[in-house]
Amino acid sequence: xxxxxxxxxxxxxxxxxxxxxxxxxxxxxxxxxxxxxxxxxxxxxxxxxxxxxxxxxxxxxxxxxxxxxxxxxxxxxxxxxxxx
Length: 84
Prior knowledge:
The protein is 42% helix and 27% strand.
């Protein structure tokens, strides 16, 4: 079963300058559906598709094992404007 910690660890290694990772198990604990928010300045200058591709590439093996996966990616500046 895929865990939130395993996702967090993989993203922290694969994506430079990670400021925050928020993971929500939307499968009521069975580990088959996750929503992820990643905050990294690596996303600067990239559009939404390019950002999500970075995350999906980092989690390719994990995403193949689960039922549903969603991600949202923000730079630190974008994130700070959202969480006022």
